[in-house]
Design a protein that fits this description.
The complex is a heterodimer of chains A (316) and B (527). Chain A has 14 helices and no strands. Chain A is an all-alpha fold. In chain A, helix 5 runs antiparallel to helix 6 and helix 5 packs across helix 13. Chain B has 527 residues and is of the alpha+beta class. In chain B, the strands form 4 sheets. In chain B, strands 1, 8, 9, 10, 11, 12, 13, 14, 15, 16 and 17 form an 11-stranded mixed sheet that branches. Chain B has a 4-stranded antiparallel sheet with strand order 4-5-7-6, with helices on one face. The chains are: A mainly alpha (316), B alpha+beta (527). At the A-B interface, helix 2, helix 3, helix 5, helix 7 and helix 8 of A face helix 1, helix 7 and helix 13 of B.
């Protein structure tokens, strides 16, 4: 097991290396001058050049890359040009809201998706199945920003049940923290819910046709136990994969939702940094997010072994 | 048994959803409490929430023209002189001043007993350090007050010497864009290129906290001693009735609008025109407008097809400004047509000079001019950005108007930072439209700043110098009228129209004033 984890961790290095080169190149090819953006509309050419000199942007690109990687190896992602703080600090400040949002969105997705998926598979071909599948198709089709704006208008502005935007850290109390995240989490979690519902249904259907389920039913086992103890557990592996992937998407894909709901998470950080041409932050965040994505996948792989003892990762 | 390993987290998920649902009920009961308290209406709230469009790059006012930065910094810092609502500079941290006969030396007496937020008293040493830093940091001061210098006379008197006598020295010191904030000498000296370690001024509010990408929190300065006299523009009495000011950064405009409708924000800046009606019909919200600035078209006088003056005149003749403004600002009450480059309310500089070249909408004349100039279907490029809706819309209308007179017009769209950079390469564009806030004096205008659109013209420079050196306001205005007329004759740029900025506020907000910026230091809201 440990050998496996070690191998997987080692394999992250080339991934991060390739990502770092690609992102570095893309950012530096993109037009738009960070100095001009920081100094604003009325800055003189002279001021812009002076700031570029100071920030080191007039050096050859490979030199800039090497000095950035050198810093990276010492755990230094550089300093934000705009916010004038270390990028690691900026990421640490912004990761909390995104993580909370992703967790709540995932909770909402799972609470809806798993029961729906099981019911749909159990009642296969019925009106219930058709309704649930129709809903999930709808859920997949509605873009999260549209759902977000609708929720904001109805639940926030008209009914005034929940705040329309903003964020309160966990220190302000659990409810205070959660209430700002419910609407964005619903808009973000709906697509995931739809996806997991479909996965649960099809995975359950595969299992429900197997002989041991017939055996279980034949020996007079209660239907609930057949479904949950025998079918669902064995159907869970592919579902877990989808959950892992969707959680990764939640962490990385919150950009638009965070902007709409004004949540100071990683998505908003990267969005603002792009507008500000804050190269150093963009590089740092993309790298950090890649790292998280790989780690989540690793975690999911490890969970396979927990869910299904037949899976022994290190013997591969 | 093994089964529970994964059932447990699932149960926890269900439980947390149940908790969330319970909490929901709590929130509705709190809001009922709030309503019943409002009925008594005896006390004022201790916090105002203000939604701005973006996070400022800095609070160092001398460095920036960013409106959001200046809006916030104006609460923390004060200037020697600030503008009243008639755009007249009034002493704020200065007590009085005298000008020498040759007009080159200003002796400024300071108010005594003014305390900085760190408890120290403001003296001449602080003022000299702050003002001299401004002279080299602010690009405006550098350009317009070149060679000027502040020195200390005694602890409560400073002296400003300028190289040439100009009539706009006080107004430059009192302008809001890149304003000279007075701060302690040690802060000025410790400033790096990136700015200050601490934000310490003399204003009615103290800097408390800057949460990156979320908010800036200011608290009332209990030691603040207000000036006397009615509040007027940036001068007069400041009562600071509200303890806390939170400036939230809310980039998404639908979020700002929804926030002001629900009471999340008490003031929301930069309301887009398309949401005007939606908010106007909301009984809890009041919309206020203020002269925002001009939408101006700038022509490339250096390179390309438009380097030919006659073709520029053809373009001017083709412009139907009414059409462009209506498309860009949607509601006639939100814009005005006038050729002047400065604020129409500012009588000192408001002029109709050059009106015959403005809003001609004469396609026949334009076609004739084009033919005379020998225009032969060469492609011209309009540069624009979708980040500013009015700039983009205006560009599309102009494209159509120029097509009507037979020009071959292409539009290139970039995001704002790229637009800014592309604009500086004068081989890439022929026309661009920009919406820019008002300036206080003609010399500060972007339309006459060589770096802006490449207009480096001796006639204009000489005219501006004459306006600045004029001994009376009337004479100065006459000089500026000549410059403005010349700018239209030369067709270096044209004002398309004047637009109003729209700010949405809670309808119960008292003491709020819109003057150049939202002035919140006397604002209060009943509980």
């Amino acid at each position: 097991m440990f050998a496996y984890i070690f191998k997987r961790l080692l394999s992250i290095i080339p991934v991060l290396f390739v990502v770092s080169i690609v992102i570095f190149l893309i950012i530096h090819i993109t037009p738009g001058d960070p100095a001009a953006t920081i100094l604003g509309m009325e800055a003189t050419q002279e001021q812009i050049e002076a700031l570029n000199e100071e920030l080191g942007f007039n050096r050859p690109i490979h030199e800039q890359y090497i000095s950035w990687v050198a810093g990276l190896l010492q755990g230094d992602l550089g300093n934000s040009l705009f916010m004038k703080m270390p990028v690691t600090e900026a990421i640490a400040e912004h990761v909390g809201p995104t993580f909370s949002l992703a967790v709540i969105a995932q909770v909402i997705a799972l609470v809806l998706a798993i029961p729906f998926g099981i019911i749909a598979s159990y009642k296969r071909g019925s009106a219930t199945d058709a309704t649930l599948m129709g809903m999930s198709l709808f859920g997949m089709a509605v873009p999260s920003f549209l759902l977000g704006l609708l929720l904001m208008l109805v639940v926030g502005v008209k009914l005034q049940w929940l705040p329309v935007a903003g964020y309160a850290p966990l220190e302000d109390g659990l409810w205070e923290h959660v209430k700002y995240l419910i609407l964005p989490a619903i808009s973000l979690g709906t697509i995931q819910a739809a996806l997991i519902t479909r996965m649960t249904r099809s995975s359950m259907l595969d299992v429900l046709n197997l002989n041991y389920i017939k055996t279980a039913r034949a020996k007079g086992m209660k239907e609930w136990n057949v479904l949950m103890k025998h079918a669902f557990r064995n159907a869970f592996l592919p579902i877990l994969t989808v959950i892992g992937q969707t959680f990764g998407t939640l962490v990385t894909g919150a950009v638009v939702v965070e902007t709409i709901f004004n949540i100071p998470g990683l998505g908003q950080l990267i969005m603002n940094s792009i507008v500000r041409r804050d190269f150093v932050v963009i590089q740092g965040v993309v790298l950090a997010v890649t790292f998280m994505y790989v780690m989540i996948n690793l975690l999911i792989d490890l969970l396979y072994g927990v869910v299904d003892p037949r899976v022994r990762l290190d013997r591969k | 048994m093994k089964l529970r390993k994964w059932q447990l987290p699932l149960a926890a998920l269900l439980l947390s959803t149940a908790l969330v649902a319970c909490g929901d009920k709590d929130s509705s009961s709190t809001s009922t409490n709030e309503t019943s308290q409002a009925d008594q209406a005896v006390e004022y709230r201790d916090t105002l929430n203000i939604a701005l469009t973006a996070q400022p790059p800095t609070l160092d006012s001398a460095q920036t023209v960013s409106a959001v930065a200046l809006d916030i910094a104006g609460n923390i810092y004060q200037q020697l002189f600030q503008l009243d609502k008639n755009y007249e500079p009034q002493p704020v941290l200065a007590e009085s001043y005298e000008v020498s006969e040759d007009g080159k030396t200003y002796t400024i007496k300071l108010r005594e007993g003014v305390k900085f937020h760190n408890g120290n008293e403001m003296t001449a040493a602080d003022v000299v350090a702050s003002m001299n830093r401004w002279l080299v940091t602010s690009s405006r001061a550098k350009a317009l007050l070149e060679g000027a210098n502040f020195t200390e006379v005694d602890p409560y008197t400073v002296e400003l010497t300028t190289k040439t006598a100009t009539s706009d020295v006080l107004i430059l010191m009192a302008s809001q864009a890149q304003f000279p904030a007075i701060m302690p000498k040690e802060i000025v000296e410790s400033a790096t290129a990136e700015g200050f370690s601490e934000y310490i001024g003399t204003g009615a509010y103290k800097f408390q906290e800057w949460k990156q990408d979320q908010y800036i929190h200011l608290v009332r300065n209990a030691d603040y001693v207000s000036l006397e006299g009615d509040a007027s523009g940036f001068t007069g009495e400041i009562t600071a009735p509200t303890e806390n000011l939170y400036y939230h950064f809310v980039t998404d405009h639908s979020t700002r609008i929804a926030g002001v409708q629900t009471g999340e924000y008490d003031i929301a800046d930069s309301i887009p025109i398309e949401n005007y009606d939606q908010l106007a019909s909301d009984p809890n919200v009041e919309l206020q407008t203020f002269p925002g600035g001009t939408l101006t078209a700038f022509f490339n006088t250096n390179e390309g097809v438009l380097a030919n003056e006659e073709i520029r005149q053809a373009v001017l003749a083709a412009f139907n400004n009414e059409e462009i403004m209506l498309a860009s600002f949607a509601k006639p009450e939100l814009y005005a047509l006038a050729p002047g480059y400065l604020n129409q309310n500012q009588t000192q500089w408001s002029t109709e000079a050059g009106a015959e070249y403005y809003n001609q909408a004469d396609a026949e004349k334009a076609k004739k001019l084009l033919a005379e100039a020998g225009y032969n279907g060469e492609e011209i490029t309009l540069l624009t950005t979708k980040d500013y809706n009015e700039m983009y819309t205006a560009t599309l209308v102009i494209q159509e108007q120029l097509r009507q007179i037979g020009m071959n017009v292409k539009v290139e769209t970039f995001d704002f930072p790229t637009w800014l950079e592309t604009k500086n390469d004068r081989s890439t564009w022929d026309i661009f439209v920009a919406s820019t806030g008002y300036q206080i004096t003609p010399a500060q205008l972007l339309a006459v700043t060589p770096d802006w659109a490449g207009l480096d013209n001796e006639t204009i420079k000489a005219g501006l110098a004459a306006a600045r050196a004029a001994s009376t306001p009337e004479e100065a205005k006459a000089e500026w009228e000549k410059v403005q007329t010349y700018m239209y004759e030369y067709a270096s740029s044209t004002v398309i129209g004047h637009y109003n900025g729209v700010v949405a506020i809670n309808k119960d907000l008292e003491g709020f004033e819109l003057f150049e910026a939202p002035v919140v230091w006397n604002a209060k809201l009943a509980k």
